[in-house]
Predict the structure of Carbon-monoxide dehydrogenase small subunit.
Amino acid sequence: MRLRFTVNGQPHEADDVWEGESLLYVLRERLGLPGSKNACEQGECGSCTVYLDGVPVCACLVAAGQAEGREVRTVEGLADGERLDPVQEAFVEAGAVQCGFCTPGLLVQTHDLLARRPRPSDAEIREALAGNLCRCTGYEKIMDAVRLAAQRTAEART
Ligand code: FES
Ligand code: FES
């Protein structure tokens, strides 16, 4: 099939796509967007999280054909040109990145959380990130990063 959809605000077309291949494969291998990571390919780790029509999904569980005509926003689309999103800056500043495999998914999920809950409690952060697994950091730096991102996002809005 020919897949037509929007990625990070730009229209894209991909030819000879097998309907059953994953959106994650299309993004990484056909469109050259390697930010979303392929860690488990079965919906367990959250490393491949992207927005699909504004809702975070595991791109490894979305068939390419399901993305036809829809809008995808990947971790590459969070930054404004060269300027990182406050969530991205906070992860860097808090030292919440080690191997980085989980980071793109955590960034998208945190971005979504703060859009819905600008000042989340620790319990709300844990719940929102429950589907994003990290085997390096022990999660404390990630919690610090999300708290910092919430603070920065709130400051940016005032
Ligand atoms: S690679 Fe998609 S959830 Fe792990
Ligand atoms: S930083 Fe390595 S899996 Fe999270």
